[in-house]
Amino acid sequence: MDGAPDTQPTRADAQREAVIRVRGLTNRFGPQVVHENLDLDVWRGEVLGVVGGSGTGKSVLLRSIVGLNKPAAGSIEVLGVDVLHGSDADRRRIEKSWGVAFQYGALFSSLTVLQNVMAPMREHLKLSKGLMRALGELKISLVGLPLSSCNKFPSELSGGMRKRAALARALALDPEIVFLDEPTAGLDPIGAAAYDDLIGELQRALGLTVFMVTHDLDSLYAICDRVAVLAEKRVLVEGPIEKMATVDHPWVQEYFTGPRARAASNKGRGS
Ligand SMILES: Nc1ncnc2c1ncn2[C@@H]1O[C@H](COP(=O)(O)OP(=O)(O)OP(=O)(O)O)[C@@H](O)[C@H]1O
C-alpha cells in the first residue's frame, strides 16, 4: 500500500451522477482530528456502505452531510445544494430530499409511531391531518410494521420494530436519499437479514440512494453496491466489495479477509 487514496475518477464515474459530493472535509474536536481532506462521491441509486474501525468518523461524516455537525473545512453538496453555505430556503428544500434513521431510532418517546412518522410532514408539508395520517399509515405498512403499531409508543416496540419505525419516519417525505446509521446493530441475525432485504427492496422500488454506516459484513455483501472504507482520517479506498480483499492495509485486510468476511461472502452469494 503506497498510502495514496484509491479514489481516482474513472470514465464510468464521469457518467454517473453524484448526488452527494464531499471535498476536502476536515473535522476536528479540540486537538483531535477526525477527518482531514476527505473526499467522497455517492452515486444516484446506489447503496453505499461506509465502514471503518471504531472512532474513524463514520457517524461524524453522516452528521456532517446532513448538517448536524459543522466541519472545520471543506465543502459538501447534496443534489447540487451547498449544505454548509446554502441559504435557509436551500437548506429547507434539501432537508426534504433526505431521510435519516439513526442508530437507536431516535424516535420521539412521547409520540406514537404514527405521530413520529407524521412529524416531518407537519414540519415541511401543508397537508390536512387526514392526508398525513393516510400517508403515515402507508409508510408504516411499507416498512413491514402492522397497522396496530401506529398507536404504540416507541417504548412499547421491540428493537427491530423501532428500527422499522425510524425507517418509516425517514421515508415520510418521499426522500431521494436515505441515511442509515448502523441499521442492523443490535438485531439478531434473522432480524438483521430481514431488515437488509427490506432496505434492498425499498431501494429498488423507490429508486433510493442509500448511505449506510455499518459494521455488518452480511449487510455489505447482501445489499451494498459499493463500499467506502474510512481510515487514516479519509476515505482510504472505495469500490465494489470484491476489491477490498486486494487492498494492502492492515485494517482492510483483517476486516475483509477474516473468517467472518468469508462467511458473509458465501452467504451473500447464496451458497
Ligand atoms: N460532538 C463531539 N464532540 C467531541 N468528539 C466527538 C463528537 N462527535 C464525535 N466525536 C469523536 O469523533 C470520533 C469519531 O466518532 P464517530 O462517532 O464518527 O465514530 P464512528 O466511526 O462512527 O465509530 P463507531 O463505529 O464506534 O460508532 C470519536 O473519537 C468521537 O469520540
Automatic annotation (TrEMBL):
Which terms are listed as keywords in the entry? ATP-binding, Nucleotide-binding, Transport
Record-level Gene Ontology MF annotations:
ATP binding; ATP hydrolysis activity
User: Which InterPro entries does its entry note?
Assistant: AAA+_ATPase, ABC_transporter-like_ATP-bd, ABC_transporter-like_CS, P-loop_NTPase
- Asked if Nucleotide-binding is a keyword of the record, the answer is yes
SMART domains documented for this protein: AAA
Q: Domain ABC transporter spans what residues?
A: 20-257
Presence of the UniProt keyword Nuclease in the record: no
Superkingdom in the source lineage: Bacteria
Question: For this UniProt entry, which residues form the secretion signal?
Answer: none
The cross-references to PROSITE patterns, in alphabetical order and at most eight, read: ABC_TRANSPORTER_1, ABC_TRANSPORTER_2
Q: What is this protein called?
A: ABC transporter ATP-binding protein
This chain's source organism reads Ruegeria marisrubri
Q: What is the lineage of its organism?
A: Bacteria, Pseudomonadati, Pseudomonadota, Alphaproteobacteria, Rhodobacterales
